[in-house]
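Researcher: Structure prediction, please.
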Amino acid sequence: MDIILHDTSIYIIGSGNGVFKKGVTELAWSEKILHGNFRKIRSTSTGLFCNYFTKLYRSLDHGETWDQPLLQSYIYVYDLETSDSAVFIVGYFEVLRSKDQGETWTDINPFPNAEASELKLYANDNWIFCTGNRMDSVSFSSDHGDTWTKIPMFDAVGYIGDVYKVDDEIWMSYRPIPGNSFDKIYVYDLEAGSWLSRNDSIPAGTDVTTFFTRDNLLRCATGKGIYHFDRQGLIWVSDNNTGLEDEYLSAVCVKGDSTWVATPSGPFFNPGNADWLPDYKNLHLRQVSQVFRNGGRIYALSEDKIYYSDSIEAGFDVLNTQGLNIAYEIIITDSAWYAGSSDGFLISVDSGYSWISHSQGLEGKAARYIAITSEYFFCTNGGVFRTRKDSIAWERVPNNLGNKNVWGVRSLNDILFANVYMEGFYRSADHGTTFQHVPESGSSTQCIHVEDQSIYMLEPYGPIVSTSGNCVQWEDYISSFQDNARLYCMDVADSVNSVIIGGGKHIIGLVDNYLEFFEDPQTGLGIDIKDNLPLSTYPLIRTVYNDNGRLFASPNSNGLFYRDDFLVKIENDPVVKIADNSIIQIYPNPASDRMIINGPAKDDIIHVKFFNSLGQSLLSLNKSNEYIIDVSDFKAGLYILEINLGYRMIRKKIMII
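Model: Predicted structure follows.
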């Protein structure tokens, strides 16, 4: 996420969801003014610039229209900065500068022998800085890169968060590696020529994302609020962060007494010394990674928060958690909740309210994916780790999967499965001591899904295969999908055999979400249910959940959506019994020219609808004395007939021949 102020408007990019704009005094954000998975947005006095992997976008009319400045075809735009009227980018082999709003470019790379993709740019106060992760020096220029001055870094190497000049000092947030998993702050005195540590009072484990100045005070935005630097006491002091307690701050812009910050939840605004206020009306930027039920509640896991709902119609509230930063997935058992998180492996025994880290031996790594067998916990990040449950001390599994790029782990009946990038599916029957490749998986398994006593492997373009029991014999589960569908995720209802599958369609001339519902997978007949789901720049349904017919889907960085119209199973019997002496008859089926609805319960019908296999409504009939549906113009195929009785919804599969 990034946020800037340009003239009298605020611009924000969020979670791959494009660029939004609003005036500083306006309440709502505009419709998306530019589509793209952008990394940064910056401005000069007359232009706006965004970088998007291989592309640089430019607007000279406050975001009304955009074009792409001419760059060499091999250029990758890894980073972007502006200083005064100059624009700087990190390309594939060089650091380029333009003084004419992107019309012409000059190579000014201060590190000609370094791999440019490792370099990063920072700018403020008409100074430009260039350095990179694991670099031994930082270069700065006060003349737009015509000349550079290098200063050595401190002894440790690591990852840089931000570089910022104030007065005669250069401030830097830095994460040394290996060892510490949190940021440190250093300041370089240009006159004295030395680095000094300035970490006092910044809580351990805090990411320092950016520096800024407001009210003549140096401040830093972090993963745990905003701090200002007390120069007399040489310590950092927490600002009034009411409203930001649970937010990760990624960018800041200031205008007078007003401040805006970008967070994974969207932007927040502070008009001075008041509490922080949400400022994301018309924005839906959250990425939902998991939806699950526990008892009567539905939970949604989204970046740094757990949301819960006791009534979907009433929406979601944030669970007030302690000890949880960013969670990637959660597993619930009868005794506890377990989370793979940015802080390692966490356990909660009070339904997710408080979490305790159990990460000894994880080498300071996050726990991305987790699995549980009867004797062991497992997690992944740069390989598969395991620990005995009765004495937690993590270690890499004693085989080559300990250092593989593992996309996921799941377990069923004490058998562990691991999804290895570009190698497929591996199986272990001895708690991870040895693994065997599953030949049915090929080399490109997209995801692993476990439901009840079955496990499913989903290939990017199909098929889906499943196994149960001994987890050895595999068979096709669903093999036919919509044309050009790339499968990404799936969920199987736990009490009815229905399946929802999400993904995207990404071919020349066709970019779309993919979301298909199989009421009965054995028929191989799916229904397109993407309907009105929003499209992001990279359309993809990332998360799905099938709550026994109530379907949830999360489009790429566009929040969470649900639909209830599949809560009632689609029925196949031509006679539907409503009560002891009341029925609905639907005939003939298959039909070729007309279909009749009859029976004693006919008078209770409120309306009748007819849908095609894509979920599109073809006709709707309100209350009538007789229901004779003309289907002679319908193409041959599968259709869904929906009858609303008010107190009951009936859906039937209809075959037109």
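Model: The chain has a mean pLDDT of 84.
Researcher: Thanks, that helps.
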